[in-house]
Design goal:
Rossmann fold; binds BIS(adenosine)-5'-pentaphosphate; single chain; about 190 residues; alpha/beta; five-stranded parallel β-sheet
């Protein structure tokens, strides 16, 4: 597989994080999740975490400025030089454009955008199940539906942004975790 600069797109609960972990292991590249980094900042009560907490709990997007800053710092680390899997970033057109400028500056590029397709009610059920197990603050039904609304308005248009460069490969996301993983590898091999 030669595609190693990868962006994962998909609605909340589509399985981006689950699949990113598996793919990162297969490709030997880092999994970079802005959601995980922001949750770590909230837990550490850092200045970024203090700003982000209420926004995340409401299912809204943290400001482009904050998110681009943390993504930039992570992508500049040595271990991203041979590839990376971006999970949850970019999420707005502004973030996608800033990412392109950053990657050009540091000599990296996006090779493929894997778009996980799901059905809304199925993923609401998934996230309500996770709420019982993990208790993530934004996994209650009202906030889950707000995250999905925000995804449709702010993030889904990025499919067109990457499709214009023929980078998008769609992967059905409602099958089992191993089946989705195999489909992702097949999509990358065909990219
Ligand atoms: P983030 O952490 O990115 O959350 P999200 O996009 O809402 O995604 P999730 O983590 O809920 O779902 P996922 O697609 O990763 O699925 P997962 O594998 O976990 O962002 C959280 C918040 O941070 C945002 O709302 C925002 O406030 C802020 N933020 C983050 N990035 C930002 C950015 N760039 N700009 C601005 N703000 C940002 O799976 C979900 C569940 O389903 C799990 O329980 C899993 O076990 C299960 N599951 C997965 N796959 C399957 C399967 N195939 N079958 C059955 N169950 C499955």
């Amino acid at each position: 597989m030669s595609s190693r600069g990868i962006v994962l797109l998909g609605a909340p609960g589509a399985g981006k994080g689950t699949q990113a972990v598996l793919l990162a292991e297969k490709l030997g590249v880092p999994h970079i999740s802005t959601g995980d980094m922001l949750r770590a900042a909230v837990a550490a009560q850092s200045p970024v975490g203090l700003k982000a907490k209420a926004v995340m709990d409401a299912g809204q997007l943290v400001s482009d400025e904050i998110v681009i800053g943390i993504a930039e710092e992570r992508l500049k680390a040595d271990d991203a030089a041979d590839g990376f899997i971006l999970d949850g970033f970019p999420r707005t057109l502004g973030q996608a454009e800033a990412l392109d400028r950053l990657l050009e500056r540091i000599g990296l590029r996006i090779d493929c955008c894997l778009a996980i397709t799901v059905d809304t009610e199925g993923i609401v059920k998934r996230l309500l199940k996770r709420a019982e197990i993990e208790g993530r603050a934004d996994d209650n039904e009202a906030t889950i539906r707000e995250r999905m609304r925000v995804y449709a308005v702010e993030t889904e248009p990025l499919l067109g942004y990457y499709a214009a460069r023929s980078l998008v490969r769609e992967v059905p996301g409602m099958d089992s975790v191993p089946e989705v993983s195999d489909a992702m590898v097949a999509a990358l091999e065909a990219a």
